[in-house]
Design goal:
The protein is an all-alpha fold and about 600 residues long. Helix content is about 75%, strand content about 0%. Strand 4 (about 555) and strand 5 form a beta hairpin. The longest helix has about 35 residues, at about 465-500. The mean pLDDT is about 85.
């Protein structure tokens, strides 16, 4: 815990220094990196060797081909002297500082949560070998790779850290070593290695054909038509990392791992790398076919994953589809290449990281206390586990209700979609947001509904886990009211750097007033309803059930004269758009879109 808080303090210190500085050019480091480059080449060989060894061990030979296809050409380029030298390798700008805060605060809090959770996990899963120290070490390596990636400007270094995250996620997903865990971990590995091959191709083309060795060379050169090739290849890699259709199944399969792994993958690391790269590339994608395709894939993923989230009752699976859906919205915003789109994307990243981390942790604790993470078993949670229910309610509200930042971000996203002139994007956002409201409201209603078997349970959540969840809960509430300041200090300077010009404020005084009105309405509606009921007669009635009410509104007498518990269930609409009906068609449609993007853009440019 001491080590975690030390890393958090260091990340905050660096981020604050960068955000408060007027001269960002002072945060450029390492031009001569001969020794460091050799170490990175050794690291790449080690990662490739590890993948090959485990692939042979589990007889998953296809992973060997993908690992070698990505790593060997990059090593050849480095050793043959074809790589461009002489540029700075590390660059910490405003966006990197924002990501420092996400990784350093949210990521470390997840690690602290994991230190207590893993003890309970192995207490309930005695069939799984206890390798908690190994698991925690992987989490810290993961965070280290994230810090390295967001600090790097050199494409070769970014690729190295990119591959570390792929291997770490693969190892964490396969933690239990069951057949399901092994299969799901290799699915995550091959999909991310496929994206890694795309990234490797992009960095080789940038170095050998364009003479660009740094990401800032590409994002700062909007006039080079040939730059669209590496941009498209990097965007393809980002789609795999951020689990967009057709690559979403790896993130769904990651649920077999312990909850801290899911929280880390979904909130502070892994999937955020993908959208981080897309936001970096966003200004270059404006008005290009790549931008159009990325936006369509993201919008389609947002809508389809929202529908799929309605049809499942496993709490972690709902959160997984929700993550894919929200990442789709961030992807669509980045693809527009507009200032409003980038503003909305960054704000969505911030709020999603905090809320989703909190929700995964809470679901994990509920599972430890109740033995189930099914949404249907969470009826009356407000009575059963009031502390965890309160935390979960805050997390759910942070995902879709006014005045929390996710709704503000969707507002900006809608404006960017309208400005882009795409009717399809507006429809995706409107209907996807409606689906989002449906599944979050179902879950929220289940928590607050007290029907049967609603008696308080023992809350066995360790103090170390509350050390993580309480700060995250407070952060959601604070960010709700501080979003204008967040926009002023973090996002507006980020826009100025990304678009290389002074960008007018995306959020103005009128927007803040509207949000204040929303806050007031949340409190005024129930207060007004109470005043309207004064002086009027009220009549308490028993619930109507298909039998004789037993008198407590929780039981009824059936036709055989037996007393039975009343049960209310949500509606999942599996017959309309369940996983069996929608998942594979969505994968095939998005596969066609991705192939069209690669063939038309890259093939046409070549």
């Amino acid at each position: 815990m001491i080590g975690g808080f030390s890393i958090m303090a260091a990340a905050i210190y660096v981020a604050v220094n960068v955000l408060m500085s007027d001269d960002k050019t002072q945060f450029l480091y390492l031009e001569a990196t001969h020794t460091q480059d050799k170490c990175i080449m050794v690291g790449e060989l080690f990662l490739m060797g590890l993948v090959c060894f485990l692939s042979i061990k589990y007889k998953k030979y296809y992973a060997i081909l993908l690992s070698c296809a990505g790593t060997i050409p990059v090593l050849w380029m480095d050793l043959s002297g074809n790589v461009v030298e002489g540029n700075t390798h590390l660059r910490i700008d405003t966006f990197a500082a924002v990501m420092y805060l996400i990784v350093g605060i949210v990521g470390i809090l997840i690690c602290i949560y994991a230190s207590g959770y893993m003890k309970d996990y192995h207490h309930h899963h005695t069939d799984v070998a206890d390798r908690s120290n190994y698991f925690l070490a992987l989490m810290f390596v993961f965070l280290g790779a994230m810090f390295g990636l967001i600090s790097s400007d050199n494409l070769g270094w970014i690729y190295f850290f990119w591959e570390i995250t792929s291997v770490c996620s693969f190892l964490m997903i396969g933690y239990t070593r069951t057949q399901e865990a092994v299969d799901n971990s290799f699915r995550a590995l091959w999909m991310n290695l496929l994206g890694g091959c795309g990234f490797a191709a992009g960095l080789m083309y940038a170095n050998m054909a364009l003479g660009f060795s740094n990401l800032s060379d590409i994002t700062g050169n909007n006039t080079a038509v040939a730059a669209i090739i590496p941009v498209t290849l990097f965007a393809f890699a980002a789609l795999t990392k951020s689990a967009q259709f057709p690559f979403s199944r790896w993130l769904l399969g990651a649920m077999v791992a312990p909850t801290p792994s899911s929280a880390l993958l979904h909130s502070a690391t892994m999937v955020k790398i993908g959208v981080y790269m897309l936001i970096r590339l966003s200004p270059v994608m404006e008005g290009t076919l790549t931008g159009v395709m990325i936006t369509v894939i993201g919008g389609f993923t947002f809508f389809a994953a929202s529908l799929l989230a309605i049809t499942v009752s496993d709490g972690k699976k709902v959160l997984a589809y929700s993550t894919i859906s929200n990442l789709g919205l961030i992807t669509a915003c980045a693809g527009t290449g507009t200032t409003e789109g980038v503003w909305a994307a960054v704000m969505l990243v911030l709020f999603h990281a905090v809320s989703k981390s909190l929700l995964f942790q809470t679901v994990g604790d509920i599972e430890n206390c109740m033995g189930s993470r099914d949404v249907e078993d969470m009826h009356g949670l407000i009575i059963k586990l009031p502390r965890l229910a309160f935390i979960m309610i805050i997390g759910i509200c942070g995902m879709f209700m006014a005045p929390f930042g996710m709704l503000v971000s969707k507002w900006a996203a809608l404006k960017s979609f309208v400005d882009s002139g795409s009717v399809w994007l507006v429809l995706f956002l409107v209907f996807g947001s409606g689906s989002t409201l449906f599944y979050w409201a179902k879950w929220l209603g289940k928590i607050c509904t007290v029907i049967h078997q609603s008696f308080e349970l023992e809350d066995i959540t360790p103090r170390s886990e509350m050390v993580s969840m309480f700060p995250l809960t407070a952060m959601i509430v604070i960010m709700c009211f501080a979003f204008p300041k967040i926009s002023e200090v973090m996002i507006q300077p980020l826009l100025d750097e990304a678009f290389h010009t002074k960008i007018p404020d995306v959020i103005g005084g009128g927007d803040v007033i509207i949000m204040i009105i929303m806050v007031c309405m949340i409190f005024m509606i129930p207060i007004a309803a109470r005043f309207l009921s004064i002086g009027k007669d009220s009549k308490m009635t028993m619930s109507y059930v298909a039998g004789v009410n037993a008198g407590d509104d929780r039981h009824y007498i059936d036709s055989f004269g037996k007393e039975r518990a009343l049960y209310m269930s949500n509606w999942y609409m599996e017959d309309f758009f369940g996983e069996k009906k929608l998942l594979w068609p969505s994968i095939w449609v998005s596969t066609v879109l991705v192939l069209v993007m690669l063939i038309v853009v890259v093939g046409g440019a070549l």
